[in-house]
Write a structure and sequence with these properties.
alpha/beta
Length: about 425
């Protein structure tokens, strides 16, 4: 089957990854398409009144990949380049990620094609509320649970939760995760993706005979995930030598003061004007020598050309889909770079979103240290299962992670059968 709905570079990349894993698993042909392709896609056009009185119409999407293991789960991004193909690919990856780490979810993803930097706070609130209003028939604590992603944050989730609650007639905190703690959010959720990335990097460094204080780290993308990964790695003793955002990159072999860089971003919005190192482009930062390279921004930044020139020992994929399929083949051929694939590396966010959902449903909340302890326990189990699968089948770490996730989803679908 060839999808006419989702056809795009990033969706086709996710499908190629699936096909390779399905071949390794020898997945029955009857099971492949129904395991691969998303179950449901919602596309809406949203009229929103802007501050100057005019009405602007935005396109928005929500893709729910499968509901065989429970409700779907995934973020919502506000970004001008959002497309239905991109959202579908992200929903697919979320499915494999949830299954890999043992969560009772299918994958989902949503997005509004808008540049949030061009919105006032009031306009962002109206966009957020309108998006949730359009999706109320298709979401809910037992149907599809949203979370923040690029361009959204805890405040966005608060507006969405409030909108849903007002429409259904009762407070329903479990409809979204990543909320402020005061209205049902979880301790540790905000930093969970970045802290999970940092923890896995530490564990892989140690398993390869390296101590964190011996490692240098370059991070492309200094947003929520990248900055918390930097703070976590700094706490473990690593030296952060490169960071970047939309304004460009800073590289300093002697080490960057991460706390000072965060203060600069908080005051100025971006790293522009921060001069504690050499100014580079985002692409140039990828090619600087380091122990660990962390792409924590957009998809498909590690191309064949970049893969051939990388000077890192570990590639830790904090972003979703940062490495193209062709670039993956180059890395496999090189054999000198250990890849920590995205479906494992950045799974901390959805794990802690699961914790928040459980706490909301029970109205019983956990302390910060308990959340992180549970997070690291799940990450350790997932890492062990990936390494076992990698050695057992003699495959790459990415294929090991994907085959585990895909096999678990396919098994759930087979057990439930086809209705009617």
């Amino acid at each position: 089957m060839q999808s006419r709905i989702f056809d795009s570079q990033v969706f086709n990349m996710a499908c190629r990854q699936f096909d390779a894993a399905a071949e390794i698993l020898d997945l029955p042909m009857d099971d492949r398409d129904r395991t691969k392709f998303p179950k449901r896609c919602i596309a809406v056009t949203m009229p929103v009144r802007m501050d100057d009185g005019r009405v602007e119409v935005f396109e928005a999407y929500r893709v729910q990949h499968h509901l065989s293991k429970g409700p779907t789960k995934g973020g919502t991004r506000f970004h001008p380049s959002v497309t239905v193909g991109e959202v579908a690919a992200l929903a697919m990856w979320m499915s494999w990620k949830c299954a890999l780490v043992g969560l009772p979810y299918g994958g989902a993803k949503g997005g509004v094609a808008v540049d949030p930097r061009q919105l006032s706070l009031a306009e962002k609130e109206r966009v957020s509320r309108r998006y949730m209003q359009e999706l109320v028939p298709f979401v809910g604590p037992n149907i599809d649970v949203m979370a923040p992603d690029m361009g959204t944050d805890p405040q966005t989730m608060a507006w969405m939760m409030d909108t849903y609650s007002n429409i259904v007639g009762c407070s329903t905190p479990a409809v979204v995760t990543g909320k402020p703690i005061d209205i049902g959010g979880s301790e540790g959720r905000l930093e969970s993706t970045g802290r999970g990335v940092a923890y896995l990097i530490k564990r892989y460094l140690e398993s390869h005979g390296l101590r964190p204080h011996q490692a240098t780290v370059n991070i492309q993308g200094f947003g929520n995930v990248g900055s918390h990964a930097a703070l976590g790695l700094l706490g473990y003793g690593c030296r952060i030598t490169g960071i970047s955002d939309i304004s460009g990159a800073i590289f300093n072999p002697g080490g960057i003061d991460v706390h000072e860089a965060l203060r600069h971003v908080e005051a100025n919005g971006t790293l522009e004007g921060y001069m504690e190192g050499d100014r580079l482009t985002n692409d140039e930062l990828l090619l600087q020598k380091c122990t660990v390279l962390v792409p924590a921004a957009l998809e498909r930044v590690i191309t064949v050309k970049v893969a051939r020139k990388l000077k890192c020992r570990f590639l830790a994929e904090a972003a979703n889909g940062p490495t193209t399929v062709s670039a993956d083949a180059v890395l496999d051929e090189r054999g000198d770079i250990e890849v920590i694939p995205d479906v494992l590396c950045n799974s901390g966010g959805v794990i802690c979103s699961y914790f928040e959902w459980v706490q909301d449903l029970q109205s019983l909340f956990w302390e910060h240290d308990e959340v992180l302890r549970k997070l690291f326990d799940i990450l350790d189990k997932a890492r062990h299962s990936v390494e076992t699968q990698k050695e057992r089948l003699g495959i790459s770490r990415r294929n090991a992670a994907l085959t585990l996730g895909i096999e678990r989803v396919a098994r759930a679908k087979a057990l439930r059968g086809i209705f009617p």
